[in-house]
Write a structure and sequence with these properties.
Blueprint: E1 2-4, E2 13-17, H1 24-28, E3 33-39, H2 40-45, H3 47-54, E4 62-68, H4 77-89, E5 96-102, H5 104-116, E6 122-127, H6 132-135, E7 140-145, E8 148-155, E9 160-164, H7 173-190, H8 192-201, H9 205-210, H10 214-231, H11 246-256, H12 260-278, H13 285-294, H14 307-315, E10 324-332, E11 335-342, H15 343-357
Parallel strand pairs: 2-9, 3-4, 3-5, 5-6, 6-9
Antiparallel strand pairs: 1-2, 7-8, 10-11
The structure holds nicotinamide-adenine-dinucleotide.
The site of nicotinamide-adenine-dinucleotide has 31 residues, from helix 2, helix 5, helix 6, strand 8 and helix 7.
Length: 358
């Protein structure tokens, strides 16, 4: 399957299929230097695929291989500095392409290296996690600072996204369920039919672990994200909808040190409660709690923290004020809205969430 972005210019293909990596050579032939930045776990699980990627080059091209950890520590100034210096030492020119092979961490990191090396070189995303169906599309790249996640970055579109589904076979369930949160989010943004389809396809943990039909849902997820991002690349309006579940999600992720997607799932339940409190909605919150339990999400982490530290984390976002936060809510499934939510409502919603999960 192949999609083409529909920006006004600089469009790129997104190829989603088994053995998609075989197509890499088509995109690399014009570069003098090709830098593979690879997640160490991916290299360990898929040595043949990595060899296949490297063999895409001709003998005239210069290949460089950099292995990094697939952890947030990679998205740091220190790793960035060391990689940039290593690359500059080789005397490479702007006729360079960086190929990111890994999950969201490697994609964000390698994309940021590409955006800044010699004022910008080309890059290609080869996502290897389910979550990276989201992070590899839309052009946001960056690293973290001690002050928070993704605070230094750029908008830098890849030249192509080559999503080889064979990589997903080695994902542990915790990464499957983490990545599924963003696929599920895209279904919630899409509408009731999309939601019904996805819940029917994955009614329980076993069905999700088998990853059946996943390519269809990844494609739909990418299409949903693209439609929003193409309309609003720099997050002036509609792109904010993609933050569904992320306001409370980021706070609980940071506070409890849980996987991004698990936190987003919890954030989406929280958002339903807030919607019922301040919009005229009657979301069946219990349905979502039951569904997440069937898929094995560890929702009880919500019982650990006090509200105040979570509120402090939510207020940190630059779009907020001291009285509350800007939050994406669903006025209906498929109908997101951005609302200012007062601290008192946030607290009541938190108490309701804890009561539901006791
Ligand atoms: P990740 O890249 O940390 O990967 C998760 C784990 O899976 C790591 O341990 C990694 O080594 C391992 N892994 C990767 N591929 C594997 C494979 N095929 N088999 C086995 N193990 C594999 O995490 P992620 O969930 O993919 O991405 C999270 C990151 O994405 C965060 O840093 C987040 O900020 C970022 N993100 C960015 C955007 C964006 O628009 N740029 C959007 C969403 C998330």
């Amino acid at each position: 399957m192949q999609l083409m972005t529909t920006y006004q210019d600089n469009n790129y293909p997104i190829i989603i299929q088994h053995d998609a990596i075989a197509q890499l050579s088509t995109f690399l032939s014009k570069y003098r230097d090709v830098v593979f930045i690879i997640d160490k776990n991916v290299a360990r699980f898929h040595p043949t695929k990595i060899e296949q990627a490297k063999s895409a080059l001709s003998t005239k091209q210069i290949s460089h291989l950099i292995s990094v950890e697939g952890s947030e520590q990679t998205k740091s100034f220190s790793v960035y500095e060391s990689v940039i210096e290593q690359l500059l030492e080789t005397g490479m020119t702007r006729n360079t392409c960086i190929v990111a092979i890994g999950g969201g961490v490697v994609g964000d990191f390698a994309g940021f290296v590409a955006a800044t090396l010699l004022r910008g070189v080309d890059f290609i995303q080869v996502p290897t996690t389910i979550l990276a169906h989201d992070s590899s599309v839309g052009g946001k790249v960056g690293i973290n600072t001690p002050q928070g996640k993704n605070l230094v970055g750029a908008f830098h579109r890849p030249k192509s996204v080559i999503y080889d589904l064979d990589f997903l076979t080695s994902l542990p369930y915790v990464e499957i369920s983490s990545g599924y949160a963003e696929v599920y989010k895209h279904a919630l943004l899409n509408g009731p039919l999309a939601l019904k389809d996805i819940e029917e396809a994955y009614p329980n943990k076993r069905a999700l672990a088998e990853l059946k039909q996943l390519d269809d849902f990844l494609l739909k997820g990418i299409e949903t994200k693209l439609n929003i991002v193409v309309a609003d690349e720099h997050e002036q309006g509609k792109r904010k909808f993609l933050n569904l579940g992320h306001t409370f999600g980021h706070a609980i992720e940071y506070h409890e040190k849980i996987p991004h997607g698990h936190a987003v799932m919890i954030g989406m339940i929280y958002q339903f409660i807030v919607s019922n409190l301040i919009l005229d909605t009657r979301h069946d919150v219990q349905h979502y709690v039951d569904y997440m339990h069937k898929l094995g999400y560890p929702l009880d982490v919500v019982l650990n923290p006090e509200f105040q530290p979570l509120l402090n984390l939510m207020l940190k976002d630059k779009k907020n004020d001291q009285n509350g936060v800007q939050m994406v809510l669903l006025s209906e499934i498929g109908k997101p809205v951005v609302k200012h939510v007062d601290n008192t409502v946030l607290k009541t919603a938190f108490e309701q969430l804890q009561n539901l999960l006791k």
